[in-house]
Amino acid sequence: MAATDLHVRFPAVSLLSQAEFALRRRAVQDRLDARHLHESSLPTGAATLLLHGTCALCLRRTEFASETGSWERMADGRRVPRWDGALACDCRDALPKQARAIVHFAESEAMLRPWTRLLLFGPPDASHRRLAALAGHTVTVPALRADGGGLGPEAAPAAFQLAVAVDCLHRTPPLDAAFAAFRRALAPGGSLLFTVPFRHDAARTVTRPDLGSHGVRLATMLREPVHEIGWDVLDRLRAAGFAHAAAHWYWSAELGYLGAFSMIFHAAL
Ligand SMILES: [Zn+2]
C-alpha cells in the first residue's frame, strides 16, 4: 500500500452555520466539559510540556512538545496554553498543532494528492513545506496585488485544484474580492482551505475602516487584523461562488489537537 493510501480520519464535525454550531455545542456540552477538564489537568508550569500521542502525518507514536515560555502566566504560576503554535511533532518538520491539522485536513478531506496543483497564499507558514511536498506542483502567492490585480499572473484562471491560506485572510482587506480571486484560480471541483482567527460567538464579521488604496500592504506591514471573522464568512464564500462552505470544528487529545474551538474552513466549487 502506498503511503498516500494511509489516512487517519480527521476528527471534526462540519458546520454550515452559526445555528448548527449552537445546536452542536449544546448537544456535546458534556464532552466539551470533559475536554476542558483534560486540558486543565495538563501541567503547564514546565518550560517544555511533553505529551504522548500519535502524529496523523508521521503515522506513528510521538511526543508533542510545547514551549510554554511565551504563554501568559496565571497567578498560580501555570501558563495559559496557546495550543495552535504548540504541540510540535518530534519529526524533521516539527509541525505544531494547527500546521499538522491543516496538512492532515488537506490530505484526508481536501484530496491533496501527488498530482495536485497547489496554491499557497499568504506569508510563509510551518505547514507549507509539507503541503508542497505532498502536492504535484506548488505556486506561492504572498498577498493580493495592491493594484487590484487579484492573485497576480502566477494564478491563471482554473490553474489550481487546492488553495491554502493560513491565518492571513483577517489581514486581507478586500475579503470578498479575495474569495472571488480564489474561486477564479480554482479548477472545477477545486477547493479553498483556510484557518483564520475566528470569533465563534460572532454572527457577523467586523471590518475596520478601509486603510485606503495601500490597505493591503499597510495591513500586512502592521500585522494587525483588519477583519474579526464571524460566521457570515460561510455566506460570503457561497456568495463568491463556492457551492459548499463549512467550518470543521476539530479536537483530539490522541492526535495532539487541543484547544476549545479550533476550526478549519473549507469551501469547494
Ligand atoms: Zn509528525
Task: State the gist of this model.
The chain has about 270 residues and is of the alpha/beta class.
What does this 3D model show about the protein?
This protein is α/β, with parallel strands linked by helices and 269 residues long. The protein is built from seven helices and 13 strands. It has helices spanning 18-27, 29-40, 97-108, 128-134, 175-185, 215-222, 232-239; strands at residues 12-15, 48-55, 60-67, 72-73, 79-80, 117-121, 137-141, 160-166, 186-195, 206-207, 227-228, 244-252, 257-268. A seven-stranded mixed sheet has the order 1-12-13-9-8-6-7. A hairpin with a 5-residue loop joins β4 (72-73) and β5 (79-80). The model has no long low-confidence stretch (mean pLDDT 91).
Which terms would index this structure?
two-stranded antiparallel ribbon, alpha/beta, 269 residues, binds zinc ion, 7 helices, single chain, Rossmann fold
**Percent of sequence in beta strands:** 25-35%
Class computed from helices, strands and strand pairing: alpha/beta
Q: What is the CATH superfamily classification of the domain at 111-268?
A: Vaccinia Virus protein VP39
Radius of gyration based on Cα positions:
19 Å
Number of strands: 13
- CATH level 1 class label of the domain at 111-268: Alpha Beta
User: What oligomeric state best describes the polypeptide chains here?
Assistant: single chain
Q: Could you report the average pLDDT, rounded to the nearest whole number?
A: 91
Helix content range: 25-40%
**Main pleated-sheet profile:** 7 strands, mixed
Strand neighbour order, sheet with most strands: 1-12-13-9-8-6-7
End-to-end Cα distance: 30 Å
Secondary structure tally, helices:
7
By CATH, the architecture of the domain at 111-268 is named 3-Layer(aba) Sandwich
Return the string of H and E elements: EHHEEEEHEHEEHEEHEHEE
**Bulk shape:** globular
CATH topology of the domain at 111-268: Rossmann fold
List the bound ligands. Answer: zinc ion
